[in-house]
Design goal:
Elements lengths: L6 E2 L10 H8 L10 H6 L5 E2 L5 H13 L14 H10 L1
Parallel strand pairs: 1-2
Helix pairs in contact: 3-4
Length: about 90
């Protein structure tokens, strides 16, 4: 997964196996919503949760950061927005 950026939609189900199969395998109670994108982001497997309508803009911003073109990170004021900080973290 080196160099990959993982994006998910809000509330997306991210799973290899169903909850009952996993619970039966590990024989433990699983946390609420453990296969939802918000939980998976907290555990570090998803970098960003992006609404589908904002996907084009976020991918463009990530590419500009990665390609160092017109990036808000390289702005004249040398200040970054909270959104840019999140995207920079995801890109690095």
């Amino acid at each position: 997964m080196l160099g990959d950026i993982h994006l998910a939609e809000p509330g997306a189900l991210i799973a290899f196996a169903g909850a009952r199969v996993i619970q039966g395998t590990v024989r433990e109670e699983l946390p609420e919503g453990f296969q939802k994108s918000e939980y998976v982001e907290k555990t570090g497997f998803i970098d960003l949760i992006v609404e589908r309508k904002n996907l084009k803009e976020k991918i463009g911003t990530l590419l500009s950061i990665l390609l160092k073109k017109n990036s808000s990170i390289n702005s004249l004021s040398n200040e970054t927005s909270e959104d840019s900080k999140t995207l920079t973290k995801a890109a690095s």
